[in-house]
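Batch manifest line 243
LIGAND: GLP
JOB: complex structure
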Amino acid sequence: GMKAMHVRVYDSQRQTALAAASLFAAKILSKPDAVLGLATGSTPVDTYKLLIKWHKDGMLDFSRCRSFNLDEYVGLTPGHPCSYRRFMDEELFSHINMKETSVPLGSAPDLQAETQRYDAMIEQAGGIDIQLLGLGQNGHIGFNEPDRSFSYGTQVVTLTKNTIKANRRFFGSEEDVPRQAISLGIGGIMKARQIVLIAYGVSKAQAVREMVKGPVDPVCPASVLQLHHDAVILLDAQAASLL
Ligand code: GLP
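JOB STATUS: finished
ARTIFACT:
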């Protein structure tokens, strides 16, 4: 049979973030040169705040860690105010002492070459030790949208209407949201040695249910995590309300 995912439900977002940050801290303390897989969106922000606090308190040293982000919008330069590179600089990197941080280059002239370069860099770094994930309302992880098959390597993806709507709050209007992104593939995510997925709020409850209780099916990309040997799903009570 299939290995059960570790699902943990907390009373508040704060406790959920504390659990996620603790797993990252434990990894960094036990492996100071850990390779961190990082995510964007609203969900990881509280977790990053805790990691920053622990760094400032002298508890966590990121100097030997390196990181790879999951995804980036196609067409946005690193300096664009809505780029995920910019988001990561503001929400985490500028507050800690990690020297090497990588985000796919959405403005690369040759996107195909960029996807290959990104996978090669992760491989050279020895692979991802611990991967943080949020969850799309449609069950996407990274920017891997519902599909007929699970993707493998980093690739250029077309965003669904639902995702564009969900992410327009970060942009001026829906028209300003890029239609495509570069994303680590499902295979790339599954290669991470440990996975920590966080979901908050009732808007994620249906996707959480499909991820945890549904069949492993690329229609809900996150359902693949049922097959991972070390995936922890951290939920607040609202996100867990349909379990
Ligand atoms: C975006 C990101 C995902 C993220 C998802 C959920 O589409 N590419 O990595 O998990 O949004 O975002 P939020 O955490 O803001 O709900």
